[in-house]
Amino acid sequence: MAVPTPLHVRLLNLLGAIRDLSPFDVLTAEEEQLLGSLIVRWHDHDNIAVSHVMRDLASVSQTTIYRRLISLRDKGFVRLRTDAANKRTKFVEPTPLSDSYAAQITKALDQIF
Amino acid sequence: MTQYAKNSATAVLIAFIWIAVFTANENLFTDSQHCLRANWIFLPAAIRLLAALLFEKTGAIGLFLGAFLITSGNSAEPWMYNAGLAITSGLAPFLVVQIYRRLGLITHDLSNLRASDICSLSLASALSNTLILNGYLALSGRFDGNPMQILTVFIGDTLGIVVILGLLSIILSFSLARRR
To answer: Coil, helix or strand for A21?
Structure first.
């Protein structure tokens, strides 16, 4: 006889499916922090490699950094471009959405100061 | 607490939730009511679907209890007629969920439930309720043959589910990450 599934398991699965109905994707605090550091880098440099981002955020594991970059990509905030000369290298590039996000921060700061 | 006591308490809780949402719907959407049994927006339809998915038989019993208390309190009809009407409320979503299970479309633990399944379950639940409710009204001689009655129930249930699940999905997007 099959063991009945606990209610909390069914509930979490149901809530997960309902959550996926939403077209909105909200940034987590960590993703927002990563996006902020990327905006600063893009201001100073072009061709920001994923490996550089991982190296500079040494306190966080590379897997976690990569997962957050993928999440930012899926939410439309970054683009990952493979280097034509070296297929193992990927560059993190801004998108119109990240430009819009940076512009909103600027606008908010202008209102304060 | 024995399983029987837990199930009974769950059924009573579902009944109370049904009554609360039904009453709220009556107050919020009085102007969109087509007739006594049909409203163009029927929020409690979402409670039917959620109760059937989470609690199966217990959910159906809770829905029956809530609907029976509502219909008995609101009309001068015989109690057996009201009981039959209340049975349709719990039966419709329960049958839909069981059919989906038998077809292997959803598992008992809902682990394979996707957003597209929620959409199809919502439509199927609304259609099932429309057919069963109006079928019962016809069998009991209380269906006047007006197709608007059928359409109102279907659209009302569908819109009710869309509103509730839509709001819930937006709220959940702030606390749950999208699943891969």
So the answer is: coil
